[in-house]
Task: structure prediction
Amino acid sequence: MTTATVEARRLERAERRVAILEEMIEDRTRALFLSNERLQRANAYLMELYSVMPEALCVVQHDGVVRDVNDALVELIGRERETLLGRTVETISPRLSEFLRSAGDDARVDHFEDEWQSAQGTIPVLLSIATAKHKLGAPIYVIAAADMRERRQLEMELRHAQKLESVGQLAAGIAHEINTPMQFIGDNARFLRDSFDDLLSALAAYRELLERTELSEADRTRMQEAEDDVDLEYLQARVPKAFARTLEGVDRVSTIVSAMKAFAHPGHERVPTDLNQAIQTTLTVARNEVKYVADVVTELGELPLVPCYAGDINQVFLNLVVNAAQAIEEHNEGTDARGLLTIRSQVDGECVVISFTDTGGGIPESIHHRLFEPFFTTKPVGKGTGQGLAISYAVVVEKHGGSLRFETTPGEGTTFVVRLPIQGRVGGPR
Result:
């Protein structure tokens, strides 16, 4: 085979490989084009969905800069898109900006009540926040906002009524489910306690009899070993205490169940109510909120029965106790100090006066005028919605003709004072 022939064959093989490569490149180019076309269509489809969604949507970069907003958000806050893009999210909500900074790369909240800045003022919104992470860039925050203006007032009233109704149903169910087993647990514990006492009496009689009986040394040794094996002296000392603590626990459960029933009963009519008992019931229900942060002192004077809506008044007392506990906890955060919650009751003329004094940090003067506004709160996200004091004010003043006021000293604490007319007359002293 000549050199020319060999070279010709090599050239032919090379041309075939080039043709194959060109065909592969053409196929890859065609596939890439089709993929890019599908990607563009999908992107356009997603952008269309993003634009027409009824919820206001906002995409925020990791550094807090607004990257995109949809039409619903523009309409909600009444500002042009160009005035939002490229600005920090603080222009929409300082509180949201603070939350995103503190949450870092894992911001995720399903329900975050906030107030957004709009051209007409502040707008209450309910937010859902998620973090979208990508390998090629920093995480971004996707925020969905629902306008709450039309629902706020009705929601507050419904939530209050439903809460009392639900707690009432829960308390009734707990009473039904717990009281019966706790009763036979208590009965069995008392039976075992009495039986053990009888056994101890019988044992004492046996020992006395044995002292008068002649036994071999081996028998006495075996009896002593038997007593040592069961640690009889330990059982005699500890078992009665165990029965006592068991019965104490049974009584405590019964007390808690009774308190929940009394607290949760909605009461659609005014009934003569023992307000001192209502305070004690509230402290039982709120014990878990208070016991870790403060000691409670009660100075309860002799009170007449006061006609009122007992369930609503219980809710007022609970709101004030929980607020006091949270104020003390915030004031003493980072220390081992415990606060003090003092509750006093007395008769003052034609009214009963109940005061709740805490040793928290006090209330800044700048927010005194807003304290009883619905949904106003200085608490962090997840700690409160600002309804407690507003509801309490409405119950005491509007529903019972009483008054709710406060006295505060920054750094020392706050006292809330509830006045209720003894005769239940609307329009009592304010």
In short: The two ends are 121 Å apart (CA to CA). Residues 425-430 have pLDDT under 50 and may be disordered.
